[in-house]
């Protein structure tokens, strides 16, 4: 989450004349952050669920992840389009807009900065919540439904 936040913070530096390679680098950082977070997070969530309930847990995790994507896209589009002339928005949605003709790029970039800033805050909040979760825990099939093993820093179980 922190790496993703760094990538989003990097996008706060873009301007009207930012070269594509710079955008690509920040997008690469964001993608790396997502890759570094998603797999271990999924493992942590699924690791504490009894085997008989993993299908339910996987479905809930996927639903919550999809809900987060939808909400974040709606928020970002709302923030970005708030800076656009309604006639230009209609042209974009109708498919008749060509390039940036008629779009005030300064206000558009400012709106992008607000959306990226919201993403930075969400990443920081997600990182803090993940840290509050504590160490990695695993399901103990020998100990029954209540037994969880907390992995110690040394790699052993306590």
Q: Give the oligomer, counting copies of the same chain as homo and different chains as hetero.
A: single chain
Helical content class: 55-70%
Radius of gyration: 21 Å
Poorly predicted regions are 145-158
Tell me the domain tally.
Answer: 1
* Apparent shape: elongated
Number of separate strands: 2
Instruction: Round the mean pLDDT to the nearest integer and report it.
Output: 82
How is the main sheet built? 2 strands, antiparallel
Amino- and carboxy-terminal Cα gap:
28 Å
Strand percentage lies at under 5%
| Biggest sheet, spatial arrangement of strands | 1-2
* Secondary structure category: mainly alpha
Count of DSSP H/I helices: 5
Instruction: List the helices and strands in order.
Output: HHHHHEE
What features would you highlight for this structure?
mainly alpha; 5 helices; 158 residues; disordered C terminus; single chain; two-stranded antiparallel sheet; 2 strands; 65% helix; elongated
Brief summary:
With 158 residues, the chain is mainly alpha-helical. The chain has helices at 2-11, 20-47, 54-81, 86-94, 105-132; strands spanning 137-139, 148-150.
């Amino acid at each position: 989450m922190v790496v993703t936040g760094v990538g989003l913070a990097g996008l706060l530096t873009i301007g009207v004349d930012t070269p594509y390679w710079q955008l690509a680098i920040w997008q690469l950082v964001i993608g790396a952050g997502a890759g570094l977070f998603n797999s271990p997070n999924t493992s942590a969530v699924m690791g504490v669920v009894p085997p008989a309930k993993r299908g339910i847990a996987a479905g809930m995790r996927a639903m919550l992840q999809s809900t987060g994507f939808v909400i974040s896209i709606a928020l970002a589009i709302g923030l970005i389009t708030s800076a656009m002339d309604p006639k230009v928005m209609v042209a974009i949605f109708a498919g008749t807009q060509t390039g940036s003709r008629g779009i005030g790029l300064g206000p558009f970039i400012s709106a992008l900065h607000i959306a990226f800033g919201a993403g930075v805050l969400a990443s920081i909040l997600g990182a803090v919540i993940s840290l509050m979760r504590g160490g990695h825990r695993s399901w103990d099939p020998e100990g029954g439904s209540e037994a969880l093993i907390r992995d110690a820093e040394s790699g052993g179980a306590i």
